[in-house]
Amino acid sequence: MRPPGRADRRRWAAVAAAALLCGGAGWSYARAAGDGTRAYAETRDTALAAGREHLARLSSYDGRRAEEDLRAWLEASAGELHEELERTEPPAEVSARATVTDAALTALDDRAGTARLIATVRVETSAAGGTAGPPATDRTRLEADLVRTGDGWKVTALTALPATGT
Q1: Dihedral of the CA atoms 9, 15, 18, 20 (nearest 10)?
Q2: What integer pLDDT is reported at residue 4 of this predicted model?
Q3: pLDDT tens digits, one per residue of 105-150
Q4: What is the 3-state secondary structure (H, E, C) of 13-29?
Q5: Exposed (0-12), middle (13-18) or buried (19+): which is 47, by Cβ within 10 Å?
Q6: Would you say 123 and 97 are in contact if contact means Cβ atoms under 8 Å apart?
Q7: pTM, to two decimals
Q8: Of 76, 72, 23, nearest in space to 49 by CA
Q9: Could you give the CA distance from residue 10 to residue 17 in angstroms, rounded to a whole number?
């Protein structure tokens, strides 16, 4: 056998470096898996996704499907907002389709199960059935309070924020 050459030493050094990197990554992952920061981030992401979905749902309405849309509003809400929506009779002659264009949580209390979200929403409004011409488009900023329930995150309060000049 020949003595180990320069190429063999480099190969072993590369294998040793790769093993150290893999070990370090595994240790870091194991630490993060038990870290409260990861659980908090998952809660934040879940609340944000639910908030975005619920804001789009609560800002949309089709006069031709009034009962269906009202049920969707009730499923997306809780607390006082839910009670208020139960008493609502939406107009049948209007339709609105909303898209949340941007959103962020401004507060999250994981222990209490509450969060606050701000969002920018684009709403296209038209007469039901689209007979009155092209829809009007409006952009609005909303703030929503969320609560974690047995069925996931729900909106408990919804407020339109004033537009600021740029």
Answers
A1: -80
A2: 58
A3: 999 999 999 999 999 999 998 876 556 667 789 999 999 999 999 9
A4: HHHHHHHHHHHHHHHHH
A5: buried
A6: yes
A7: 0.74
A8: 76
A9: 10
